[in-house]
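Exercise 4. Each item below gives a protein and its sequence. For each, produce the structure-token representation.

Item: Pyruvate synthase (Pseudoneobacillus rhizosphaerae).
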Amino acid sequence: MSTDVKTENVSIPTGMVEQSVVFESGNEMAAYAAHQINYHVMGYYPISPSTEVAQFLDGMKAKGEHDIVLIPADGEHGSAGICYGASTGGGRVFNATSANGFLYMLEQLPVQSGTRFPMVLNLVNRSVSGPLNIHGDHSDLYFALNTGWPILLARDPQIVYDMNLLAIKLAEDSEVRLPVIVSFDGYFTSHQKRRVQVIKSKEDVQKFIGEMPTNFLHALDRENPVTIGPYMNEPDYINNCYQQSEAMYKAEEVFERISKEYAELTGREYPVLDLYRMEDAEIAVFMLNSAAEVCKDVVDRLRANGIKAGVISPNMIRPFPQKQLAEALRNVKAITVGDRADSYGAHGGNMALEVRAALQTFGNISTKVVNRVYGLGGKDFYADDAEAFFMLAQEAAEQSFVEKPFDYFGHNPGSANSKPQRVLNPMKKEDLNTGLITVTPNEETGELNVKIPPLRSLTKKPKRLASGHGACPGCGIFSGLELFFKGIEGDIVALFHTGCAMVVTTGYPYSSHKATYIHNLFQNGSATLSGLVEMFHERKRRGELDELGLSDDFTFVMVTGDGGMDIGMGPAIGTALRNHKMIILEYDNEGYMNTGSQMSYSTPMGHMTSTSSVGSFQNGKPFHHKDTAQIMAATHIPYVFTGTEAFDRDLLKKAAKAQWYAKNEGLVYGKILITCPLNWKSKDELGQTIVEAAVNSCFFPLYEVERGITTVTYNPEEKNKRIDVSEWLKMMGKTKHLLKEGSQEMLQMFDKEVERRWRQLKAKHESPDL
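Answer:
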């Protein structure tokens, strides 16, 4: 989104400030508000559906439209740390996340609220896995309830914009001084475009939110050094928590005050509770965020038929507006509370439990409460569904007691006829154990001798992945993986990180995996598989698998990519240090391609992604790529290698070695370069040509590190095939800007680094002690 498009000046008669109209989504409006506020720092990490917020800000940054320092973290836990650290410096801080990313940063959030440093976090609501689902519900939001952050809600893009302006003013108020969450529905509000009124001038926005507080303690005042987050014993700790609690309840009063100020400015006011036709309502529905708007339409229809119905939708749920809610329900006979997440085992969702507590606290024993969990995993909520919620309240109002106070809505029990059927038969053992590839250790030197047959003889070997997956045309993941797996004999158990390779092969109830497959999130796949590896060996040692007739051996392979060795690097290093007998195989497509081509640490310098935009103030990724193979080699595991499908026999030989080491000595790490035509902006049919050029330019050298000894397995200089880096770059649309006038400095920096790493690798090859 850019500030100079899709705007129309509009006179708002009920406000005091000139406004414009834009037609944008919730994510765009969060970014729009952030750029007007002009935060100092945003630490971020991509996760759908919140990723666009950082993308839009990066696009604006490339055009010089704001001064926010955008810091790409190595994961959401890191992004929360960046934000906390930045907030201790006394400036304004911003972030956006969703779902499991929010849970990954969860540990950091009470630290920030407990030490009272303001910031704003946009939580774009999405299902928390597993199983993996990327659509909208409130299961992440409910984890936020106990973090100590005030929580504002936004039902539509207009409110996303407004709440972001209110949030920073609330966070910095001297009576509150807490970080604030703005929550809105993923893919409902985040991506659907609506007509939105925005304050035209940044100066008017700055005037409304006010100057940054100067009386808060921070880490950058040398005349007043402070200790932030000290160790506390009781009673100091309970006193600190009490003060935080008092500030949280004060946030409700402060929010109402600044909401009235905002109404004078713009004509739009947000009371703590949004009450729709509740003045004489006898039945009601309580609903958060976007689904509340569906309920309002149904209310109008019900009232036309003589049914006195209303809708309650809070604009703030932390602090929970207990007193106002009890007052609004004083004459209501029954209410259906919709929870878009379950509080498993609590006999109700979080909102229903809090509504019941509000009624109990204020002595209301007559209003009946019905609770239904709805809309999980992004399941649509239609007008007919809303009407059913009102009818549940109507039925409860007519009964002396509620027969079914809690249940799910919209689920079905399934049937035996719908049970997933096996489509693919297990691969035969004799087809997997071909004996065509042999690995034999030299008795004297221990060096592995690998024999690879003619490649045509391996075509009969069954594929580990069935056809029919949903990868993009020209995707290099599966051609690269299948070539690697041709070098593996026998059965495998594979764990796939979240990413393209996982998503396009496992759309329930179908799976493209012929062997046992496990999924876990980016940050914990290697630890998960290491647990399975050790369980296998221990159960085998105890003879338990023999008793079950399961004496077969396995090769354990974790497949990662799409930036998985950013967020997953820590657990991978831990797995390496423990030296589990398994293979970690990284397919490197140079970005977070699964979420729309965001910048990864594996993205090379200068390459364009959706969070390293190209413009007059920015020229692609500003720093060099991470060399994961060398990082893993530094952990001194038995075997590390690089490969590509363009050098097939080289990769097959390394796969065979990888299996031998994983079975006999410990952890193996392999990195294969694969193409992503969609996000590299290259032709589908050029995949193998491009990765071959990457090798011949020495950007992606082929080598192995075997028991600490580095060997270059293909030297393009010796083959007289060395090409200039620019010859490789011109094959991809994402890098053509580097070949234009004005990019010479960055191109030279990139080229110089490629040459430095290549020379260093050759030195290791020539000197085994390095």
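Check: Residues 407 and 569 are 41 Å apart (CA to CA).
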